[in-house]
């Protein structure tokens, strides 16, 4: 904060600190002097920054409604360059005698536009693709042009999958079959003999090393995919017996996604590199070491080994990997391999931002309670009011317990007809005033009872927002993934309300009540008062990885509108591609409805209503127009 500013004035610096944008924004996101969120694909060029509110205006002028998913081409380009250049610098500094070849796992975001742009921006680095299924392989082959890039085939493989990969080899692609289960090798060998194509074979190994985080079971002895050491040796012997050991060129492992602790990464690299050296000594040519995924995104900006963060930089990640590989291989005079990482999350997370508007707010305000109650007021209600009157920071736990006790007694009395609904409603007002007062007094204490830790969330406002958690950020609901969320404007104003966010589904799980914080997890998000007639916009950031792919049709809310943005060096932006979100008819076809049949059925229902005298022919025409408009409409709230 500028010391010359008046005391108490809210500034952009205070908003930066409150929402942590400098910590998680990675230099791409910031706040303007006018109090709006900026996006800047060139961290060192402030002239290239564009306001998200300006982009919203441009989107609305083109006739698209909220919610909108923005994809920033420049950010994807920047992250691919950042990763590849970080490895190149580390290799040059440490004297590594191999190269780096990144691959993008399609499963992280399979949308055609995303994969197309990854291959386009990655081509100058020979950045390839990783697939884990036949559909993904088909998609990858339609996008890849660079024959120097690697195409890694993981997952369960049938004959069609293997034949397609072998044809890719024949066409000149560096396509590798990674053997994940013992039975796969025989099928790869058999199909390669029939088609007359020599395969590039890799082996996925189960490491003893494990990592922390959400996906810890991806590694270790009990991981689902990969070969045990004994199976690895059997596979080497099989290839030698078939005179195909020269096809074994790659070793792969996968420790997990979003690995927060660099020590776990380094430990796995050391173990895998020892295995690699032994395979070379067995006579396999090798040449490629695939270290899998795991490079984390610092979602909360804390730079710690917490699940939603990481305690290392991308530069440290690259340097530690290169150094660990060199240290192991140099001891046995083994040639340095081409290093591959399957980093998808860090490549595409920053690329997408979900924008949406607030539709309504439910406030939890203090109620006016008279000091003197009517003579016929129930004793339990009087006791509840006494708790409120006698409350102080010295007796918070006692008052909290008493308030819960009397509230429950009053509810029980209502069930048995001993008080009226109006009396119960009056008692509820006293109770919530008491909870408000407890939360206020709690702030005066350095140490407070554990029962009161989350009491603020009980009196938080509910901001109803125009999106679906299940469609757009399913990890928030499924695995408690935290994403940065903040207002896109009014950031020079003090946010006076503490809120949780509810989406427009009719499901109680369709909410966000956990938010990032530098030192812990917040239960509420500070937001501004709604102004009558003015739209209020929020953004959820770093949603490019997994969220689109995993989104479901809960309540039949479909894909949002998608707009791709390209930002110039001068700070101008172009909306280079618009993809309209799903219509009602679109999502109904996903769950096996036929819109034409539905229209015919409803038309017959309307005709029957005419015959019964319930509606006129004119009514029928108006009703059918409304039904047809409903089918063509956006699944989200439209003004």
Can you lay out the helices and strands and say which pair or pack?
Elements: H1 12-19, H2 21-24, E1 29-31, E2 37-39, E3 50-51, H3 52-61, E4 68-72, H4 73-94, E5 103-105, H5 112-122, E6 128-131, H6 134-143, E7 150-153, H7 159-170, E8 174-179, H8 182-195, E9 200-204, H9 229-241, E10 248-252, H10 262-281, E11 288-290, H11 314-331, E12 338-340, H12 345-348, E13 352-362, H13 379-389, H14 396-415, H15 421-442, H16 455-458, E14 461-465, H17 469-472, H18 474-478, E15 485-487, E16 497-502, E17 511-512, E18 515-516, E19 521-522, E20 525-527, E21 537-540, H19 547-550, E22 561-567, E23 573-579, H20 584-590, H21 595-611, H22 617-632
Parallel strand pairs: 4-22, 5-6, 6-7, 7-8, 8-9, 9-10, 10-11, 11-12, 14-16
Antiparallel strand pairs: 1-2, 2-3, 4-13, 13-14, 13-21, 15-21, 16-17, 16-20, 18-19, 22-23
Q: Could you please describe the fold and organization of this structure?
A:
The chain is α/β, with parallel strands linked by helices and 639 residues long. 40% of the residues lie in helices and 15% in strands.
Q: Write down the overall geometry.
A: globular
Mean pLDDT: 91
Query: What is the CA-atom radius of gyration, in angstroms?
Result: 30 Å
- The beta-strand count equals 23
- Give a quick account of the main beta sheet: strands, pairing sense, barrel closure: 10 strands, mixed
End-to-end gap: 39 Å
Stretches where pLDDT is under 50 for at least 5 consecutive residues are 1-6
Number of helices: 22
Q: What labels would you give this structure?
A:
639 residues; eight-stranded parallel β-sheet; 15% strand
